[in-house]
Specification:
single chain, 5 helices, mainly alpha
Length: about 190
């Protein structure tokens, strides 16, 4: 987490708000990671039980592979959202690393705002797709259930990334307002 140097009492409320945003963003990322852990355990158990039933009893679970695929998709999206929240996604920083710290922070704020804007558009598109008549009648082959609950991960992912990107943009803005120079400050988090 990047430290914010306070310039005086007027920033106190802003810093409290920033700490709250930082904690909330971290808590949301923790929930995402917890869901990933549950899915990983469920995924492993489902495949283990299926292998045992298939080879020991010649009675595999016919729905195991399709369910495992949906679990893997949900795990991937949740892990990606948590990685974005924690600032752990791969980034190409060849140009921004050469910028002065304040300009680098300003670029990070702009990038996070662009990510948020893009995710809002993609959230709206995914919601339109989820509401489409064809989507609601699509059934999972082996489960016999509607695929709609499985498809909602896309809209959920874009909503979560929007929240995380806005949080990062806000925290970066607070760092810009709070410090004349923030050498080495990462692009996420507020402390102090």
């Amino acid at each position: 987490h990047g430290a914010i140097k306070r310039t005086g009492p007027p920033m106190t409320k802003l810093h409290r708000l920033a700490r709250g945003v930082d904690r909330s963003n971290g808590a949301l990322a923790s929930i995402e990671l917890m869901l990933c852990q549950v899915l990983v355990v469920g995924f492993a158990l489902l495949l283990l039980v299926n292998v045992i039933l298939r080879y020991a009893f010649s009675a595999p679970l016919y729905y195991a592979e399709e369910t495992a695929i949906y679990m893997l998709i949900w795990m991937t999206y949740m892990a990606a959202a948590a990685s974005i929240a924690r600032g752990e996604m791969v980034a190409l920083t060849i140009l921004t690393d050469r910028l002065p710290p304040r300009l680098r922070e300003a670029v990070n704020v702009i990038v996070h705002l662009l990510i948020a804007a893009m995710c809002v558009v993609l959230f709206q598109a995914s919601m339109s797709w989820l509401r489409a008549p064809g989507t609601s009648y699509d059934l999972a082959l082996t489960l016999g259930l509607p695929k709609l609950p499985f498809y909602t991960i896309m809209a959920l992912f874009f909503a979560l990334v929007t929240i995380h990107a806005i949080a990062h943009a806000f925290l970066g803005t607070v760092r810009l307002l709070s410090s004349r120079d923030t050498p080495g400050a990462p692009s996420t988090g507020v402390s102090g």
